[in-house]
Amino acid sequence: MATRKPPARPEQKPRKADAPRRGNGGEPRQQAEDGYDTLTTAQGIPVSDNQNSLRAFERGPTLLEDFILREKITHFDHERIPERVVHARGSGAHGYFQLNKSLAKYTTARLFTETKVRTPVFARFSTVAGGAGSVDTPRDVRGFAVKFYTQEGNFDLVGNDFPVFAIQDAMKFPDLVHALKMEPDRAFPQAASAHDTFWDFVSLTPETWHMTLWAMSDRGLPRSLRMIEGFGIHTFRLVDKNGRSTFVKFHWRPHLGVQSHIWDEHMKIQHADNDFHRRDLFEAIQAGDFPAWDLGVQLFTEEQAAEFPFDHLDATKLIPEELVPVQLIGTMVLDRWPDNFFAETEQVAFCPANMIPGIDFSDDPLLQGRLFSYLDTQLLRLGGPNFTQLPINAPKCPFANHQRDGHMQITTPKGRAAYDPNSLSQPGDTTARETAAGFRSFRAAAGEDGKQRIRAELFADHFSQPRMFWNSLTDIERAHVVSALVFELSKVENEHIVVRTVAQARNIDEALAKRVADGLGMPLPARIPPAREPIDMLPSPALSILRNAKETLQGRAIGILVSEGSDVAQVNALRKAAEKAGAQVKLIGPKLHVALSDGKRRRLDGKVDGMPSLVFDAVGSVLSLDEARKLAKESAVIDFFRDAFGHLKAIAACGGTRAHIFKAAGIKPDAGVVEPEDTAGFVAAAKVRQWAREPTLRTLP
Ligand code: HDD
């Protein structure tokens, strides 16, 4: 009987033979000259044929005996682990934190006192509502979790990109998440808050309003994970060597400034690129354009806190930085993409209870509940208590204890005694004893009013701070909040929920509620009086993105549309000017390969339908008249410019583009449309959105 040979291995590029590579078990493996290891089973048995299973005869059944096939399939069948119950979709990166201002006056934590030390970090950014495979750009808050591998153990700052949270007490977390996630009977919508159960919960739970308003603002639509702020949200404590405590709130400030998309753009990016934020972070790090954030602290005393018109233990409240300034103390730089997504980004386990000496929790009831939840969920998600031994989770400082055994124990502890105190340990045994320098909880005074299920009095003020946020926004930002509320409520089927939501919004601001009602075409419902009437706080200009917008092309992307015969000198001049200003420039064409005016056929970065203007901050076009005439018939090209114009982007448009494509797209050039020869004008225009254009394109509610 003729035997068929396995298909030949496809041609492979030779790989650099670097340091001896290791198998999964960490043992050095035999490497062939082409850089490949010898393929083995998980038991190390060399495999001779990875293409065909073992069959009884040429066209016969597969044999159970084929342990190689069975092992391969079994392992594959078990590849998935439960996704995170929230924050399932995320992207992470390695980096370091460098302190430049010591807080030795306030804390013993070496992380915040030793300015010469670079502390390794792993950061993970996430959306909250969607599953692991959902898109990067829904309207949502973004998780901002940082694991500091300090010399005194791991410290996790598990925050978000908004400074406030939706609920005040961990008791409400499952309710909040059940209301936000897809509805349980129909299993939609995925990764969206625009549905009945979310707004039902919001309108029945007024404490959610502050964070909800942040989510409805353009903060819910970040341009890039490199351009979000981060917040520890809760009040924490710093504890000095005498055991004295100072309250602290943590802030991350992106070097690239805070920047957001607008709604239509953010939604359309979901179609253009599901992985928009992940790709953006990956490409920046791979290009050596490392994202960086300054770490800031707001420090305040118990006495100062007593004077605040809100409760500093209430996670739905922020402390305006006009009241307590933010001091910048150090910088985090993310400079290495993980080698393996699953091993690192998926298996990383952040936990607010990972706390180091010199820092401590406050009595914030939301934080207190979190101290339980994360370890609990990780025991399920990662399959047992030894997930702390995974390289991404293990401390990078020496550690030792008497914890033993359990599923997937990877270490091999030595010695007879796995308990403390003991008198049997020998040198070299895995044993340890406590130290005076260890973690000590701050000795807070105990309350005298007894055990109760209760919220502190000021927690009942749910509207002063949403009002402050609203009053801190520019007119454009407010219009976007109104549009977002109108959009979301238009997706709610139950009218009583819409009515209740608008009625509640009157407690934030009458004009806001009126504008939302008008946008929905409904009468303004009667106000629902709140549990506690709001006060008027001073606006906090620091909360507005636009008031603090950074005019820069650093970290931004420019797309230039070219085609057959495009003037190469003009393309290069435009590219050079944008790159000099810090932008990443991509050339796009109707086909992937084109010859510009120099006759050289080159591969472009993308094709216009696969790389639409949505993924750029500003665009240009350099086309011959003939090509422009031809391209004016292509819907992808028309959409390229219609979207760029509609999303308020600067456009460097050549004569052909104006004469033919703009005409087909119905675009009337304004001050944000410049000639491609005017490279300086283009760079200046590209640094900002053309906000003046917005009212000419749509009615702002
Ligand atoms: Fe949480 C994950 C942030 C309240 C329970 N949370 C999780 C992540 C972030 C946050 C960024 C993802 C971490 C990662 O990348 O792996 N969570 C917050 C913030 C909160 C907050 C800023 C309020 C200030 N969380 C919160 C409460 C509870 C949880 C009140 C429960 C009582 N969070 C969890 C969790 C998750 C989680 C269920 C899911 C996966 C995980 O922990 O490891 O335990």
From TrEMBL:
Pfam families: Catalase (PF00199), Catalase-rel (PF06628), Catalase_C (PF18011). Heme binds at residues 84, 124, 173, 370, 374, 381. Residues 1-36 are annotated as: Disordered. GO terms for cellular component: cytosol. It catalyses: 2 H2O2 = O2 + 2 H2O. InterPro entries: Catalase (IPR018028), Catalase_AS (IPR024708), Catalase_clade2 (IPR024712), Catalase_clade2_helical (IPR043156), Catalase_core (IPR011614), Catalase_haem_BS (IPR002226), Catalase_immune_responsive (IPR010582), Catalase_large_C (IPR041399). Residues 40-428 form the Catalase core domain. Its EC number is 1.11.1.6. One of its GO terms (biological process) is hydrogen peroxide catabolic process. Keywords: Heme, Hydrogen peroxide, Iron, Metal-binding, Oxidoreductase, Peroxidase. Residues 8-21 have a biased composition (Basic and acidic residues). GO terms for molecular function: catalase activity; heme binding; metal ion binding. PROSITE patterns: CATALASE_1, CATALASE_2, CATALASE_3. Its cofactor is heme. Belongs to the catalase family. HPII subfamily. Decomposes hydrogen peroxide into water and oxygen; serves to protect cells from the toxic effects of hydrogen peroxide. This is Catalase. The lineage of its organism: Bacteria, Pseudomonadati, Pseudomonadota, Gammaproteobacteria, Lysobacterales.
